[in-house]
Amino acid sequence: MDKISKIFRNAFPAALLALLLVSQPVLSLEKKAVSVGVVNVVFLMENAPQSELASNRLKEKFLPQEKKLAEELEIISSLEAELKERIAAKTISPDEKRQKERELRARKRSRTRSLQDFREELRFARDAALDDVQKEVFSAIDDVRKQQKIDIVIQDFISASKRVDITPLVLEYLKNKLLTEQAKTENARSSDADSPSENEN
């Protein structure tokens, strides 16, 4: 019996120390509350000024091609109407009729290929622009999270109070960031315009 008691006496302090060591991190975590924020990424993607800027750039780049395709369609429609009129009025020979129809088919095929190329190029450009804006938004969310000393930001949520919603802060951050970038670009252009050229020297 003394032997068993001695084993318990020796083992108890070690077990108690181990328990305290294991419990210590848990206790420290309980003392420090974890801060959580929520964000509406869809709203930011739709309302961030970077999205509007990307959209305007796409329009500026692809508008000439779009106009050209629209003009070609008008020409084809006009040629078709003219051919129908001549056929109805019987002022066109069979050979000329076949030639005009071949020309029309060729123009239609050419425009169809151009339209497909245009749509594919536009889709790739839109996807790339969307990806760039998404990266900007996610980067801004992380920057605001750090500024506000938030531990976790949740994107998908059902409902949240304004106190934890950082969406307005991120949107303001994105606006200020774009304004700063635009100001730097404008200053750089002004500096280049003011600096004397090599030819003048």
Describe, in plain words, how this protein is organized in 3D:
By secondary structure, the chain is mainly alpha-helical. It has a single domain (30-184), classed as Protein Binding, DinI Protein, Chain A. The protein contains 5 helices and 2 strands; from the N terminus they run H-E-H-H-H-E-H. It has helices at 2-31, 41-47, 49-89, 94-147, 167-194; strands spanning 36-38, 152-154. It has a two-stranded parallel ribbon. Helix 3 (49-89) runs antiparallel to helix 4 and helix 4 packs across helix 5. It is elongated and about 95 Å long.
Helix proportion range: over 70%
Q: Determine Rg (CA atoms, Å).
A: 35 Å
Cα-to-Cα separation, first versus last residue: 106 Å
Class, according to the CATH hierarchy?
A: Alpha Beta
Overall pLDDT level: 85
Q: Identify the strand order in the major beta sheet.
A: 1-2
Biggest sheet descriptor: 2 strands, parallel
In DSSP terms, counting alpha (H) and pi (I) runs of 4 or more, how many helices?
5
- CATH architectural designation: 2-Layer Sandwich
How many structural units, i.e. domains? 1
* 3D shape: elongated
- SS elements, strand count: 2
CATH superfamily: Skp domain
* Structure class: mainly alpha
Q: Spell out the helices and strands N to C.
A: HEHHHEH
